[in-house]
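Deliverable D4.2, example record:
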Amino acid sequence: MDRIEDFQAFVAVIDEGSLTGAARRLKRSLQSVSRSLATVERDLGVELIRRTTRRSSPTEAGLAFHRRLSAALAEVEAAKAEASNRRAEPSGTLHIAGSSMFGAFYLVPAIAAFLDLHPRLNIELDLSDRAVDLLDEGFDLAIRSGNLPDSSLKARRLVDLRYVVFASPAYLARYGRPHQPDDLVRHQCIIHTRAGDAWAFRFDHDIKRIKVVGRLRTNGMLAANEAAVHGFGIANAPLWQVRKLVDLGQLELLLTRFEPPPTSLQAVWPPTNLLDAKIRLFVDFLAARLRAERL
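Output generated by the structure prediction step:
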């Protein structure tokens, strides 16, 4: 008899209160269950269950062993189900939430490539800048940046996001390049009103905020970045927003050795004992894709 089946028989006897109930639950003969129980007790060298003609009752040692063994067997079953899940081609619909701009820039291309690989899968993507409630709103997965509040949600870090300062080559040729964060007070800075005019920089292990000034303030992050492209001044933003503009030479990164610590981008999903194959596959795919993006 397989050792796992012997353990399952012992757990079932205590759960059901008798060998007969255990045999019925496991769809095994009474003699088979009795042999499994005897094998476990013999191997451990301790009585786990006191048997009478009418009832089986656990000993103190049996209760303690049952408590630990039940949890272990549940983990074994979850592992077996997950391994089986890995072999199955994902199907159905995956409901994903993400932020508007990052979703358009990076989630949509990743989703399109992922759907090409898995023709039986559909994805519903909700893009907004609000914090959705995964459980109440029925989302399987959300892509979020920053520190998550304490919750029962499960999370996996996908990639770290840099926050950078930049300007166009034309602006730098005309006004010069700042070499220290304090130099920014002598420059024209483009201020995104949501981020504010106190820009964060790292000095060794300390974070210091430098108050900047500028004639252009906007609540539009893309507008601020575009103003920088057109040479109006120096701006700051997450690198992922301007990565392509930097690669094209339309913007240059400044003060990189003073960058603040990066922010984590995370995949978040509701708590579960067994992660659905389509969620796991998409998170793995997205993490690998984002790591190659130099964000």
